[in-house]
Amino acid sequence: MRTPEDGGTGRAFEVTFDGRPVEALPGRTVAAVLWAAGVTSWRTTRDGGRPRGVFCGIGVCFDCLVTVNGRPNQRACLVPARPGDVIRTQEGTGHED
Ligand code: FES
To answer: In CATH, what class is 4-91?
Structure first.
């Protein structure tokens, strides 16, 4: 259902980020959903564990890598959020070595 409150794109749905529920709107990327929830970093670097989130926002820099539904290395600025997505902070490569 389209409503003025959601910009006319449809009903809000829920995803989780690191186990907590987050409201999402259809058509938004994972990055947009996390930003709207006040989350600005969702990855740590391999060297030093420094926090990262969106940098370019257009799929070029790979700074925004995140784990979605158990799949690491998803670019949050490109991947559309889907109802029920389980989004987790990605530590390093995202693979348990
Ligand atoms: S922010 Fe650069 S690829 Fe996503």
So the answer is: alpha beta
